[in-house]
Amino acid sequence: MDVTLTQDCMQINLPEEMVLKIFGLLSYEDVAKVRLVCKQMNIIACSHLNSGFNAAQDELSKTIKQVKDGLPRRESERRKHHLYPKHDALIGLDTRLSLLRMTYIKYIMAGMTCFIPGRVLDEFFLVLKKIKTLPQLPSTCKLLQEMRDISSMAIEHFDDVISPRFQKSLNAHFSLSFRNNSVIDINDFWHESQVEVPQKTHNSNFKKLSWKVGKCRSLQNRSTLSMKKVVSKQRAELQQLKSMMSKKNKQVQNLKSTVSTQEKTLKEVQSQ
């Protein structure tokens, strides 16, 4: 492998296909670290991470469909079915992926960054493999614990540290583009970052920009809708549990009153 050092950067003289082949043998966490090597590696690694994120969404959708096809249609029968634990785990995994998608998608579509947390992708594919292969799964809470932890940390770090770096520039450039009907230069969004964003030439017009913004909003709306459905389902289950608890409490009160009555009767009999 030839490495060329110039005054500004380092260039690795390998075809992109070969570099991607090498990346395919590495974990996504290692690929994310390779972004720091040079601009060329950053471009290829960003593409590989984004492809991995898209592949994760596609693979999860296929797996959920396969498991759903094997479940009975009645909800009461589903809970007793042997595939229900897998379905429950997949829904939890889909929730985490939806949160990640809502966090990163608009910045990825704007070309400002890529899907940064490679470790999250590694954990996702590991959990998905367990769901597919293990005949009997552990509890969903234990299975998804690591995925919840690292995805939550990734989202918090992105919201607190990374996105504020170009949030003002993002808003300013969007407003300027709409006002002047001009082209947005994605490279201007990136400020004070250790890793540079790939240099691209953008020849999109106002209609193309509007279409991209509309598509981004559509994806966000769909993600929000799916999250609302999950929350609504959880609220319904919580309401059912509350009603069951209320019934149990009433039964306990009735038993207490019965016992109290019996004790009074017993005392009266003993006094006679």
TrEMBL record:
State what protein this is by name: F-box domain-containing protein
* UniProt-listed InterPro entries: F-box-like_dom_sf (IPR036047), F-box_dom (IPR001810), FBXO28 (IPR039719)
Q: Where is the F-box domain?
A: 8-56
The protein's matches in PROSITE patterns, at most eight in alphabetical order, are given as: FBOX
* Signal peptide positions (record): none
One GO biological process from the UniProt record?
A: protein polyubiquitination
Bias (Polar residues) occurs at 251-272
Disordered: region residues: 245-272
Q: Which SMART domains does the entry mention?
A: FBOX (SM00256)
